[in-house]
Amino acid sequence: MSKPFVVGLTGGIGSGKSAVSDLFAQQGIDIVDADVVARQVVEPGTPALQAIIDHFGEAIVTDSGTLNRPALRKRVFDNDLDKQWLNALLHPAIRAEMQTQLEVATSPYVVFSVPLLIENGLDSMADTVLVVDCSEETQLARATRRDGSNIETIKSIMASQASRQQRLEKAQYVIDNNGELSALPPQVKSLHQQYMQQSAQKSAR
């Protein structure tokens, strides 16, 4: 069975990746979302969550036994060693699960949505790269409004990600999300047609 055509979707925090991947899903396209997979591998009862509790202590989980993400994020942003330890634990588990989900996708092509697609070299798992682009000012405004985080936290997350220029240099396709959400559906529909054609060409080879 041939592997599906994989569209690597990325963009900085607050760029609107989720809105774009939702629109592809509405076209009947399977989405493999790194953020979803990252939650799946640390669900209650998973080996990864137990390792995190052993390392950081019980305070890292909520009363209901789920991972307290804001507490964990704060710990690793303040401590490089903890960040390295966490990455060494989670990256292989997440990558393996993403690979599995890509292989079992059944739509004509699959959208592989990864915030750190470029930074972690995961663009090597995609046939083409689609970047959701907006200005850094727009990113900052959207992310602080959405997450309720302070500006300094969002700025430090942005600083740890690839720059806007680095992402655009890797992109074969770009969606402009500087404006209103209503500007997204026409762009996604146009790309959907192109990806359907590229998928058909790949499977014909």
State the main characteristics.
alpha/beta, globular, Rossmann fold, five-stranded parallel beta sheet, 54% helix, 205 residues
Notes on the structure:
With 205 residues, this protein is α/β, with parallel strands linked by helices. The protein has 2 domains: 1-29 and 107-205, Rossmann fold, CATH 3.40.50; 37-106, 3-Layer(aba) Sandwich (Rossmann fold). The chain contains 9 helices and 5 strands; from the N terminus they run E-H-E-H-H-H-H-E-E-H-H-H-E-H. It has a 5-stranded parallel beta sheet, sandwiched between helices. Helix 1 packs across helix 9 (184-204). The model has no long low-confidence stretch (mean pLDDT 93). Pathway: Cofactor biosynthesis; coenzyme A biosynthesis; CoA from (R)-pantothenate: step 5/5.
Helices and strands, with pairings:
Layout: E1 5-10, H1 17-26, E2 30-33, H2 34-40, H3 47-56, H4 69-77, H5 80-104, E3 109-113, E4 128-133, H6 136-147, H7 151-160, H8 164-170, E5 173-176, H9 184-204
Parallel strand pairs: 1-3, 1-4, 2-3, 4-5
Catalytic activity: 3'-dephospho-CoA + ATP = ADP + CoA + H(+)
Pathway: Cofactor biosynthesis; coenzyme A biosynthesis; CoA from (R)-pantothenate: step 5/5
Subcellular location: Cytoplasm
Largest sheet: 5 strands, parallel
Counted by DSSP, the helix tally is: 9
> H/E order of the elements?
EHEHHHHEEHHHEH
Radius of gyration: 18 Å
CATH superfamily of the largest domain: P-loop containing nucleotide triphosphate hydrolases
Number of strands: 5
- Structural domain count: 2
**How far is the N terminus from the C terminus?**
12 Å
* Corresponding CATH architecture of the largest domain: 3-Layer(aba) Sandwich
Give the overall shape: globular
What is the strand arrangement across the widest sheet?
2-3-1-4-5
What is the overall pLDDT average? 93
Strand-residue fraction? 5-15%
What's the CATH first level of the largest domain? Answer: Alpha Beta
Helix content: 40-55%
Return the CATH topology of the largest domain.
Rossmann fold
User: Would you identify the regions where 5 or more consecutive residues have pLDDT less than 50?
Assistant: none
Query: From the helix content, strand content and strand pairing, which structural class follows?
Result: alpha/beta
